[in-house]
């Protein structure tokens, strides 16, 4: 017999059992209470989710009398002026089309997400646009690296995407849903090389290249420039690289200075170019610098000031172009935003307008139908030139060369493809 | 010759900055034996505070805040510098007090994870609109844009100049003075003795009546003040500033960390030596070999040092106690 059940200890035994019993009871009641509370929480959550879903359905139902299009761009970040300008251009086009009665009687609404110039953010922004917001089409990005991050998502989901200003050829190679309204790097690179070789003021035979090795845009432009410059009879005397965001370019610039070039090709974005120009001036580098449309920002002049005097870049349009199409757009833009539009604003405007014109003629607003209509675009009169899509969904159009003078770009020349 | 000298000057200026940042890493490691990954964010804080103060202070003396025609009076520049140092050391104090002190007895790994967390928090708070924002800015010039030296080399067409700008001299002088002051503080003052005692053995130091918590707080404040100074000097040299969460800042911190490891982490003189070595390897590698791999040189050097002398150049070997 265990000692516990000895008569002398029986009372304590009973009290022990009694102590235990209520313990068990309270435990079970607590868990029951917890269960009730839990089920309540779960119920509320379920209710919330279902009501949210039904809300979502409602908004989708409501969206039959409006067309939602999405834009992702770097509204903040190192290339913030790109995203802001593009967004303003798009909004101007939307205002215009809505004022004229919308697309086939439906108003157009824009959803803009900020990708901070980060490819991962661009991916999630576009995923949100196509899955949650169920947009009809996507506009964006300026930077080729970000468009390349977003394009596969649009392609997979069957949503047409028009990049206003990604010039890297790979962007539209992603698939038949991806279009653009700007010229591509092979053309831009060859324009720059041709200009460097033939312009009266430069007439360079020796060129140095300083390229951002982290940006597909910059690397692509560098390759094309090199090819065209060598084919034109020139030599590349120095090839240097940096990474977007670098602050210190003295090693590269000292090295370029030692190679004695007659022109320096810098296919970068404006924040870095501004830095490079300032440091080049300090080192006493006086040869002209040349770049692509990544230079196109009012901030470039603010950062570099007169350090960029006598430097050139290729761009999509010049605000000094006297044609009424361009001047009309500038007047509209200045009326709304009180500033002169840059090339990216013009491309954003063109991208949105070409999308609306495709929507107007498409048999339905399905992704496939709009894309098919976009492919048929011929002779569309945009602010940045006449746009006709080729078989690779790229427009063929001329580029302009601008010269920096005390912080403002001035028109120098227009170079058409095939010249 | 001209290019060699020019590269040398740049390497000296950038080396001073790396050294200033590396000191913070090495001091915290010396005392607490963990790597404060939030240290590079103090550099960013210093840089962006300099900018915020400058654009508010310049209009007071009638200058255009974003593009002053002339630099502000020297007392204003000095005032901004002192204010940045003070606020950065306050930030260092708060980080230690709120994030690390509660974990004083926790496993080392927890503290390391917290450090990464603090770093991410600071980065993301920094790029909020009402803090510093996520757009790059241009730091207004706080110093005259003088060239102290312009030595010509060669003649005629191929003439080249070695340029020594004022800012490089200032970086060299200010960081030199700060390092000297730190050296005196650590090896010639009572506080320095206490610090070295804490770094030798925290528990024994506490038993000997040394206020350990206060010593650790002061370490963080000193390290953060140096980081703030580095941030201030950095944006004066490179006025186009990236947004606070840009990966370039992280890379800057990583290179300074590598400098501390190369010199021997925990060793103050080693951190300075490491800073200069890293800058030389980076600059001369970029000039003589190729600029495509400038980060590769730095991190290869790290691997090399870890293979040959894992304690770093000036570090002493740690004996395992059985």
Write the layout of secondary structure elements.
The complex is a heterodimer of chains A (419) and B (322).
Chain A: H1 10-62, E1 66-73, H2 80-99, E2 107-114, H3 119-132, E3 137-139, H4 144-157, E4 161-163, E5 178-180, H5 185-198, E6 206-212, H6 216-231, E7 235-242, H7 250-258, E8 263-265, H8 270-282, E9 289-291, H9 298-304, E10 312-315, H10 324-337, H11 343-361, H12 367-375, E11 380-382, E12 385-387, E13 399-405, E14 408-415
Parallel strand pairs in A: 1-2, 1-3, 3-4, 4-5, 6-7, 6-8, 8-9, 9-10
Antiparallel strand pairs in A: 10-13, 11-12, 13-14
Chain B: H1 2-32, H2 39-57, H3 74-100, H4 108-126, E1 137-138, E2 147-153, E3 160-165, H5 166-188, H6 190-200, H7 202-207, H8 212-237, E4 240-241, H9 247-263, H10 268-289, H11 294-308
Antiparallel strand pairs in B: 1-4, 2-3
Helix pairs in contact in B: 1-5, 1-8, 1-9, 1-10, 2-3, 2-4, 2-8, 2-9, 3-8, 5-6, 5-8, 6-8, 9-10, 9-11, 10-11
Pfam family, one (chain A): Peripla_BP_6
GO biological process, one term (chain A): amino acid transport
Domain Leucine-binding protein (chain A): 66-407
Please give a quick description of this structure.
Chain A is of the alpha/beta class and 419 residues long. Chain A has helices at 10-62, 80-99, 119-132, 144-157, 185-198, 216-231, 250-258, 270-282, 298-304, 324-337, 343-361, 367-375, and strands at residues 66-73, 107-114, 137-139, 161-163, 178-180, 206-212, 235-242, 263-265, 289-291, 312-315, 380-382, 385-387, 399-405, 408-415.
How would you describe what is shown here?
Chain B: This is High-affinity branched-chain amino acid transport system permease protein LivH. Chain B: GO terms for molecular function: L-isoleucine transmembrane transporter activity; L-leucine transmembrane transporter activity; L-phenylalanine transmembrane transporter activity; L-valine transmembrane transporter activity. Chain B: It is found in: Cell membrane. Chain B: Belongs to the binding-protein-dependent transport system permease family. LivHM subfamily. The complex is a heterodimer of chains A (419) and B (322). Chain A is an alpha/beta fold and 419 residues long. Chain A has two domains: 196 residues, 3-Layer(aba) Sandwich (Rossmann fold); 130 residues, Response regulator (Rossmann fold, 3-Layer(aba) Sandwich), CATH 3.40.50. Chain A is 48% helix and 17% strand. Chain A is built from twelve helices and 14 strands. In chain A, 51% of the residues are buried. Chain B is built from eleven helices and four strands; from the N terminus they run H-H-H-H-E-E-E-H-H-H-H-E-H-H-H. In chain B, 67% of the residues lie in helices and 5% in strands. In chain B, a hairpin with a 6-residue loop joins strand 2 and strand 3. The model of chain B has no long low-confidence stretch (mean pLDDT 90). The chains are: A alpha/beta (419), B mainly alpha (322). Chains A and B meet through strand 7, helix 7 and helix 8 of A and helix 1, strand 3 and helix 10 of B.
